[in-house]
């Protein structure tokens, strides 16, 4: 079959794409950016689209040409793109799919898509489900619990990061929030099976694994798998966790957000027996999956580095803000010395002082609200290297400053590079 897969670049989407290709299906993968995916999946055809902007049915006419099944695995946990991606875009897609004669749309929703879960994520997912049901297109809706795999993304990355923390693992409240986790490969297998069998049309299924575990159980198992010893917990009151969530909201890419916290507390458990009966087979358990694939050094690196990424970002934002503020208030003398060394007239001092401070402020803002990590990493490298070369050339005695006025820029450049690598969570 020819299958159009939305969200093909995500954690779940990649597993679904691999499963479909392995079973001979013709996959058209819709991604925001290729980012090397076409090299990793040479047997798929890629189409770059901004799903948040594809809210007119005409945008889907060409992508749907000759398509038998649409799998919508696109999802946004936070940000302004959430409603367009979960509601407006699918509405346009469904209208175009109906006109194109698509056999079925398979929607990957969430087990928390319920009226009682008060987050914009859950409610927009629920709205997306309702839109699909009312579209007239044959449909199947899947509401998976926590999805884990050999790699990780989102919630499972957070679990690994928490499990890798030294001394004690912070645990929201008593950590008794339930999950029925399913391996990403088993979810992908079920999606492929559902696409191939029209009997699943009109059904809502909850893909889950064979056991329900608490958050504390999950963290203990991941810590043991990583080889970090017995899990010891530090219980954090929910009000404090909400504060951390708000900080994550402001940082835009923090490890915890208000949505993720509410989704966590909402309950993510499903019926293992019902799903196994519907599919005709039982997914693997977390214990068996972890035992079958021992943790490697890269897994331990990821766990240990997970919380360092936002910490490094916070430090860099502070550095640029402090540099801007100090430049505005105390930078005149240093700027005068630089202007004299460069042979510039005194009239250049104020513009140079204000300009460099404003540049630092702009870099801080870009870093704080960055959506293109490559750009902001390059921008920081260029600015720091530019400052270092210019000042080091005009005022070479600063290289010998015992407080490392210029030498400190070398480890800062390395820190920027590290953040540019580990800050990318996809």
Automatic annotation (TrEMBL):
Q: Which UniProt keywords apply?
A: Membrane, Transmembrane, Transmembrane helix
The molecular function terms of the Gene Ontology recorded here are: protein-containing complex binding
| Short name of any one Pfam family annotated for the protein | DoxX_3
- Kindly list the residue ranges recorded as spanning the membrane: 305-330, 381-399, 405-422
Record flagged with keyword Transmembrane: yes
- Superkingdom as given in the UniProt entry: Bacteria
The protein's matches in Gene3D superfamilies, at most eight in alphabetical order, are given as: NAD(P)-binding Rossmann-like Domain (3.40.50.720)
Q: NAD(P)-binding domain: which residues?
A: 7-148
Q: Does the keyword Cytoplasm apply?
A: no
Designated name of the protein = SDR family oxidoreductase
To which species is this protein native? Allosphingosinicella flava
Lineage at the top is:
Bacteria, Pseudomonadati, Pseudomonadota, Alphaproteobacteria, Sphingomonadales
């Amino acid at each position: 079959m020819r299958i159009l897969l939305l969200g093909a670049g995500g954690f779940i989407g990649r597993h679904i794409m691999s499963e479909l290709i392995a079973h001979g299906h013709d996959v058209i993968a819709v991604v925001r950016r290729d980012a090397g995916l076409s090299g990793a999946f040479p047997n798929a055809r890629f189409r770059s689209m901004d799903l948040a902007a594809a809210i007119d049915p005409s945008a889907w006419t060409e992508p749907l040409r000759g398509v038998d099944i649409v799998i919508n695995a696109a999802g946004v946990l936070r940000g302004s793109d959430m409603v367009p991606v979960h509601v407006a875009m699918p509405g346009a897609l469904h209208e175009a799919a109906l006109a194109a004669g698509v056999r079925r749309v398979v929607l990957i929703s969430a087990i928390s898509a319920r009226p009682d879960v008060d987050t914009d994520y859950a409610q927009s997912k629920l709205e997306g489900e309702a839109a699909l049901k009312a579209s007239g297109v044959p449909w199947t809706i899947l509401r998976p619990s926590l999805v884990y795999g050999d790699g990780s993304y989102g919630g499972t990355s957070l679990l690994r990061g928490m499990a890798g923390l030294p001394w004690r693992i912070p645990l929201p409240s008593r950590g008794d929030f339930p999950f029925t986790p399913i391996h990403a490969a088993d979810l992908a297998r079920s999606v492929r099976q559902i696409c191939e069998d029209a009997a699943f049309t009109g059904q809502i299924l909850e893909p889950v694994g064979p056991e329900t575990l608490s958050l504390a159980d999950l963290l203990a198992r991941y810590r043991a798998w990583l080889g970090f010893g017995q899990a010891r917990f530090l219980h954090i009151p929910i009000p404090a966790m909400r504060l951390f969530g708000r900080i994550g909201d402001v940082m835009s890419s923090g490890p915890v957000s208000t949505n993720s916290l509410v989704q966590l507390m909402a309950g993510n458990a499903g019926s293992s027996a019902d799903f196994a009966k519907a599919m005709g087979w039982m997914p693997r358990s977390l214990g068996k999956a972890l035992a079958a694939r021992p943790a490697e050094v890269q897994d331990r690196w990821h766990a240990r580095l997970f919380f360092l990424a936002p910490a490094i970002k916070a430090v860099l934002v502070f550095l640029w803000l402090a540099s801007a503020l100090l430049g505005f208030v105390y930078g005149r003398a240093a700027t005068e010395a630089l202007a004299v060394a460069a042979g510039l007239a005194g009239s250049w001092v104020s513009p140079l002082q204000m300009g460099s401070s404003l540049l630092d402020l702009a870099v801080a803002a870009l870093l704080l609200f960055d959506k293109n990590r490559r750009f902001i990493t390059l921008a920081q490298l260029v600015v720091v290297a530019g400052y270092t070369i210019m000042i080091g050339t005009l005022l070479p005695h600063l290289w010998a400053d015992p407080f490392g006025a210029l030498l400190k820029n070398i480890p800062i450049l390395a820190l920027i590079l590290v953040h540019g690598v580990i800050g990318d969570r996809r």
